[in-house]
Amino acid sequence: MNGRLLTQKHLSGLPVRLNKTNDIQRRLTMRALKFRPGRGMIISLLDVLSLIIGLEKLQPDFEVSANFPYFRHENSNAQNRTGFAIGRVEVQQDEGEPYISPVLIPDAIVKIRSGEQVRLVAIELHRQTSVQGIIEALRKHAQTVETGVFNQKFDVPKVNFVLSIHTDPDRLKNTVKQIKNVGFPDFERYMLGFNFATVEELINGGINESLYLYQLDGAKGRIFEDYWINKAVP
Q: Would 8 be classed as within a structural domain?
């Protein structure tokens, strides 16, 4: 199912009801959608999640067994939102610049299975974050790999992977440039487990074909392929 179709249920409550037979109403609705805070974020995230789920049709014995977007909270339901986001963790300070906050809440956590192997993937969708903020988030993810905090929380063996997905190609390039300029100490230790792409690349080219290692030089990221799923470490 296409991620854009999944987002129709999120249109309720907008100033104008969506009506496919009325072009004026549709344009007004999409204008309201464009300027409503957080709506673009949810749409892009659902696009990415739907592409991952779509791999179930393309890869034998592949399954998305669970996914936890950032807006799902512990001990809550549709009428009562209490508790922290399900994916929320606190991480240890690394050797770099002090974190603004030790809290890390990925935009989504996805639990995948290939055959008998299970792997956890944390997704960061960078929409309006500064390059410095992106780097800090990725450094925190490296600490989750070191400590296994996500794997313990979601009961998944081995270490987890990270998807760094960008809506702005220039910001992606600047992020990679900052990583290469030692903005992320010892990143080479983790680089096989960190994959990068833009939302547009994923939608147009498919998820396995559009993920890159941080050099962005044509080296493909392969975190959803069987070889990497079966590796002990990324």
A: yes
Number of compact structural domains in the chain: 2
Asked if residue 10 belongs to a domain, the reply is yes
Residues 189 and 86 in one domain: yes
Residues 26 and 93 in one domain: no
Q: Is the dihedral of CA 232, 226, 205, 20 positive or negative?
A: negative
Q: What is the pLDDT of residues 153-184, one digit of tens each?
A: 999 987 789 999 999 999 999 998 998 887 78
Q: How confident is the model at residue 221 (pLDDT cuts 50, 70, 90)?
A: confident
pTM value surpassing 0.90: no
Q: What pLDDT, in 10s, does the model give residues 82-116?
A: 568 888 999 999 988 899 999 999 999 999 988 78
End-to-end Cα spacing for the chain: 29
Both structure tokens of 9: 């249920």
The three state secondary structure string of the chain is CCHHHHHHHHHCCCCCCCCCCCHHHHHHHHHHHHHCCCHHHHHHHHHHHHHHHHHHHHCCCEEEEEEEECCCECCCECCECCCCECCCEECCCCCCCCCCCCEECCCEEEEEEECCEEEEEEEEEECCCCHHHHHHHHHHHHHHHHHCHHHHHCCCCCCCEEEEEECCHHHHHHHHHHHHHHHCCCHHHCHHHEEEEEHHHHHHHCHHHHCECCCCCCCECCCCCHHHHCCCCC
